Each structure stands twice: as structure tokens, then as C-alpha cells.
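Input record (Table S2, row 225):
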Amino acid sequence: MKKIKLGLLGSSGRMGQEVLKAISSNFEVIFELDSKNFSQFLKLKNKPSVDVWIDFSQPEVLKSFLKYLKLNPAPIVSGTTGLSLALEKELEGLSKITAVFWAPNMSIGVALVAKALEVFKGHQQYDFQIDEVHHKHKKDSPSGTALFLQKKLDSVLGHKKTPAPLATRGGGVFGIHRIQALSDEEMITIEHTALNRSVFAKGALWAASQITKKKPGFYTMKDLI
Ligand code: NAD
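Output record (nicotinamide-adenine-dinucleotide complex):
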């Protein structure tokens, strides 16, 4: 079977290392890019082509990489969070010429939690609060996942009133997201806990294997599960 040629941006980071550990034999890693060799890579002439990129880096890195991808289109799976609205628009812009997959959380579980939130449609008696806990090195706060769940709740309820998510940073927590629905007489809690980082790495690799077969467009977890 022909191997999928993969480029990895953010290879030396916590997530990049996890992707390298989770990689299966149907992938061949062509490039491992990080803060040490990224600028050098951009200057290289006649680079071998890749079938798909996986990115777990930082918003400003993704921003420069998108400029490169516009000139050298290839599908990309990005899990980088903390993107500005402008950067989200740039990703969408790239999706006109190649397949772009972006998800603030690559676990199937969080995609299922987002789907579960649809049960609240038409039930206006609840007040909602989302909170999340992550390791102390996480740069963005609240997390991309918490903001995604807030947006999802607003769209289910047909308003923009879900309060800003609460964030706690400390220790080595991989990611806990909790949605509370509170009424005068009851309280519902939906909670997702990532038990390791490999769940995100495996999700990204799975998405990478899927989007190599897709037409240009913007894809996220709900489009593939
Ligand atoms: P990290 O800080 O451990 O790694 C960041 C990587 O980016 C490193 O390899 C670093 O060398 C590289 N980098 C930094 N500056 C660079 C530069 N100027 N040029 C080139 N490369 C540069 O971070 P992490 O914990 O691996 O997380 C990376 C991103 O993934 C974050 O945005 C995080 O929130 C996100 N994340 C997403 C998911 C998901 O499921 N979508 C899960 C976990 C983390």
C-alpha cells in the first residue's frame, strides 16, 4: 500500500511528539518542523511534496505557514488553538484551494459531547456555564474547545448568551471540559476528560488519512465522524 507522505509542524512539542509516537505504518514522515528549522524550511528550494500536513504549533506559526501553503497547496489538519478571527478566515480562504481540517479538539468524545448539547434545543429554562481545566503550560485561555462548546450551545439555543467559559490552569491535566445546565429545580452536568494526549494525536492522524481523499473545503470533526 502506498504510504501517506506526512509533514508535521510543531514536531518537537507535546502534541508533535505524541503524533510521532502514534504514527502507524501507512504514514511516512517527510518533514518534522519546529522552531529550530521552520524558517530554514521556508527558504528551501525544490522541497519534496507531502500528501498532508499536521499542525500542532502556535497561531503565529500557523499564520506564516498558511502563506507557504497558499503557494504550495496541500491538505492540512490543524489542531492549533487560540486563533484570531482573522486567522480563522485565512484558514477558510485556504480551503478554497485545498482540503483544510481544523478542530480545537481532535477527540471523538468532545465531538460527541457537542452533539449531545443538541438535546437542549427549545429548553430555555436553563442557565449554562462551561468550565475547563488544563496543564499549566497551555497558552490560550479559555481553551479552543471551551469556546467551541460555547458557540455550539449558542447555536442550539438560538442566542448568544452562554457566558464566557471559566478556565483553570495547573499541573499536568490533559483537558477537562464541563458543561453545566442549571434551572431552579435541577442541575445537569456533562463532562469530558482526556485521559492522555494520544487521543488527540490519533484523532489528528485519522483526520489526516481522511482528508487526503477530500476535495478542497473546510472540514471539522462533525464532517468526518
Ligand atoms: P508546545 O508548546 O509543546 O509545542 C509547540 C510546537 O510549536 C513546538 O514544536 C515548537 O518548536 C513549535 N514552534 C513554536 N514556535 C515556533 C516558530 N516560531 N516556528 C516554528 N515552530 C514553532 O505546544 P503543544 O502542547 O504541543 O500544543 C500545540 C498547539 O496544539 C496549541 O495551540 C494547543 O492548544 C493545541 N492543542 C490542540 C489539541 C487538539 O486536539 N486540537 C490538543 C492539544 C493541544
